[in-house]
Give the backbone structure.
Amino acid sequence: MLELRGIRKAYHDGEAELLVLDGVDLALTAGESLALLGASGCGKSTLLQIAAGLERPDAGNVQLMGLSLASASEPELARLRREHLGFVFQAFNLLPGMDVRANLLFPRRLNRLPDDDPWVRELVEALELEALLDRPVEVLSGGQQQRVAIARALAHRPRIVFADEPTGNLHDSLSHRVMALLAGLVEEAGSALLLVTHSRAMAAYAQRALQLEGGTLHTPDSENGVEPLEENLETDRGGHSRQAAP
Amino acid sequence: MIFLLRCLLGHYRRHPVQAVFLLAGVIMANVLLVGTQVINAQSRASYAEGEQLLGAGPTGRLRPTDGGDLIDERDYLQLRLAGFYELAPLLRRVVIGEAGQGLELLGLDGLAMPRPTGQGSERVQASGDGGDYGSFSFPPYELWGAPARLRQLGLAPGEQRALVDGQLLPPAREAPGQTLGHRLVLDIGALQALTDSQGQLSDILVFELAPGRLSALRDALPASLEWVPADEQPDPVALTRSFHLNLAAMGLLSFVVGVFLVYNALAFSYTDRRVLLRRLRLTGVSRRELGGALLLELALFLLFGAVIGAWLGALLAAWLIPGVGQTLAQLYGVYIQYPDALTPGGWWPPVLMTLAAGVLCALFPLRRALSAPLLDRGASGWGLAATAQRDRQLALVGVVLLILAVIIARLVDTVVLALGGMACLLLGAALLLPGVLRVLITGLQRVLPERRAALGWLLADSRWLLGPASLALMAVTLALVANSGLNVMIGSFRTATDQWLEQRLSAQLYLRATEDQRALVTWLEQEAPGAALAERHAVTLQRATPDDSRAVVEVVDLPAVPRFLRGLDLVRGPPDAMARFAAGEGVLVSERAWRLDGWDTGDAVAVCDDFESLPVLGVYHDYGNPVSQWMLAPSVHAACWPSQEPAGLAIHGPDSLDWAAIAAGLSDSLGLEEGDLIDQQSLRGVGMAVFDRTFSVTRALNLLTLIVAGIGIFCAVSAIHHHRVGQQALLASLGMDRRSRGALLLLQWGVLGLLSMVLVWPFGALLAGYLAGVVTPVAFGWSFPLVVLPGPFLALAGTAVGCLLLAVLLPSLRLLGTTPGDLLRWQSV
């Protein structure tokens, strides 16, 4: 479903070059969830953006849903994102001036899918959004906004959900609740999840985790409750086993 | 403090557009205000100096006692022979250059002019070596003009300009430091020869007389001449007050537009730095220190911008002054000095005003930024609820201002009050804009189908956009309302003047008065049966107005011929007014005489000493005349001034006559020269050309104000696009390609522009009505019907929206050219 090979990306500041991705390989299969861990500024968001076709790598290739992003045109990439991908951002990025319902249904309407759909009702119910549907998004709390953002990312049943620090703006207990909802709904939708987080606790909601350090992916150590890479790979081979939330 | 200042200025390194925006606002607030103030200061200085001709100011002049405009040169020579060497002759003539432009020429006798001594002696010389009376007074002569005037005419020193009749003017020479305005000076003998005016003078100038010499001069005067002291000439300051007020109002309008932009730029700057300010306060910087540093930063921007603005304003003034001088000469017959270098006078009050306005603009956003709670999460600062509340408050103030404008319109009696009412109307319209736009967008949201996701986003986002963009849109609206209002006013005035000229120019041909009138009549009787000759007389008097002040009145006669009487359209008066006028039972007065000097129908006026008072029978339009006018039947005029020579002649008759052939025949048989004879249509064309030149400065300032607003919206859009990054990143991630996002951005600004025009249309028409019905009658004494046509409005709407989209295009292309990944990264910075 998603395969990255030899991804290399550097940023330039004057003559100085900051290499953030140095030959990264990554694969994500249908229905799988993967957390990318790493310190701030290590390049994990860049990796997610490259994987989602939002950013072009300096070198390497990305295959997404059978499409090589290096050779895909901008309209092809846009169509791919509109129809098959969902995004959750740290800053929520809701559409101001629109109510919760319009925000939630926005990707469905872009894809000309009907508003009234059992899956939408299920999302609304699971994320407890019924009472908020007619409220403008500006007046919502951070937690409520992120629940709307999750609903919006999943509303058109994307094949892959990309989540970039989805709980970065939320406090601890709310973070766990939101993360559990996200992981549960992604699984229910049959989608794959690529999650970027700096928190090992949040990464534990994914089936497996990788750590980005020095421009390459490593297996994180297990002391914080995340399974080692080898075990993840075992899981890959043996099917999906969701890890319980701590 | 310096460290703090550097820390705060770091924001502009990341957002240079905001710094440019702020500076542009300050500069633009200054440019036109300084420009108009410098022009006004320059004019006031010229008026204070009094009339100066070749460095000498006459203390008075000798004028024909019959109120006419011609003096026999022999009278002057007699007085010189009698020992009055303080006199100098003057001839005033307008000639037509080969390119068709009118050139006002003054003929002077350089040798008769007084010779200033000592330090001032250089004033009588033109620039360069030998530019004294020697080369001025002897062939090939010299044509002296202000350097700016020569540049305006494209006349290089030494160059000779050909006239329409093929004659050549003397070589041009720059004469700086004179109050020549757009007049050109040459030797009187040369001018008499050029214009076939041998033996004729317009004025005899009288220079400083020794004690007792004035009474001797008065005793020696022939009956045809009278002494008029300089202080009895119309006061140019009073005469031109309305003009300069209007000019100042245009400058103030642009200043207000600039202030809107400054406020907008400061609101951006402080709102975007909320997080930085909060962090600085968390590190222990007090509010007072932070406020001080921010004010210091503001002072730097204001000073820098004001100095650049003042410099550009002075350049603008130097560029506009020849046009202003021409307008002043045409409208009021007063002349200002064209500056040879940048004039510092007049620039510092606008600079102080800008500094004060800048500090006032900063107060509200600064207080809001500094008083934000320390644990504020630093949200966008353009929340919908807060901006909606702000818009409601602005709309409320706008409504109050509009009510005030209506009250002023009913009570107005001075130009200052009229302009104040106009300012209320303009500001009221601008302040209503955000609220009206919000209502319109909400209405559109309700009407459009919900499922059109992109369109829904566009409207919803436009409501959000009203937060950061409304001030720039208000500035544009202000400029557009002013532009459309002025255009409608000028268009209506032009139509009224054109129709008025068509009515008033009843005769088919007009001639300069000729000495051989008998030959003319004979020729007409033989060669053009049916054509008739009518004399036109004019006298300038000073009369006491009904409120006991003095006013200059031009008294003219109107031939008692149905064709001429029909051409007079009365503003007010009883139905039998024209019949009674033709019978010599009363006078008609111009609209200016009625509105500004107070003569109304039914009042009795003393036309001349030897004639009984006559009632005012009616009021007629007299556009473009800076002085009041009374119109008499020829019998009354002849009774008052029996020996006065006609100022001009008119030939009229049935339209079926071949008037072109008559004109050609007249010119051939009477040996008339180019300019002696002019047909109705050409004269109408000359009148309209004068009208168009009169408003050329207004049009230029109007256009500049619009450009100011255009630059403002460009800067605002560039600054706003920084806030659009998150939205664009989201739309890109949701699968909207670049073309769709670009189309949406342009459509969004196009919709905002068109919706703004909804307000511009009615308020532009209202402003035009205010200018035509309130300001112009109070300022000039002229009124005219309003002609509101949809065409110019549509053209303005198209141009405005087109310019808006152009202003949006560049920042949008930059935004759209950024990868979604970069957009996301910027958003988190």
